[in-house]
Design goal:
This protein has 166 residues and is mainly α. The protein is built from 8 helices and 2 strands; from the N terminus they run H-E-H-H-E-H-H-H-H-H. The longest helix is centred in the middle third of the chain and has 21 residues.
Length: 166
Amino acid sequence: ASLFPLFKAVDKTGTGQLTEKELRAALVNGDYTSFDPHTVKMMIRMFDADKSGTIGFDEFCALWGFLAAWRTLFDRFDEDRSGYISFSEYSNALVAFGYRLSSTFVSLLYRTYEKNGNDRMSFDLFVQSCIVLKRMTDVFKKYDEDRDGYITLGFEEFLTEVLRQR
């Protein structure tokens, strides 16, 4: 099915480019709540190939495909079919993705993105948390030349990497 009718419907200004606000209107969770604003910004940064600050139709199609793949993963780990990811489901997902993290850290990560404190992480925040964890892992690997799980980093190098993640 073509995504063009959906794209056209949310392109309120008729420019052929979706603004952050327009994209946010197109992206909803399974319970029809809007995506978290930070997730929408992250999607624009990832898929805005021409660096225009907006999303054209081809970029929108790529973004939609990316989210469809994440939805499949989300549904796979949403074992109770609640439409949300619980802490134990999240832990299982991270293990399946190959992460070996302490339960203390997984708990901190989960609580950072599961903002309501009711053990129900929405789809958008699941995607956001996994992307952030992957980015942090990639930065760490860049410095972990001997792959021992430890790095030595100067303060400004650390600050530079943190700022690049924004």
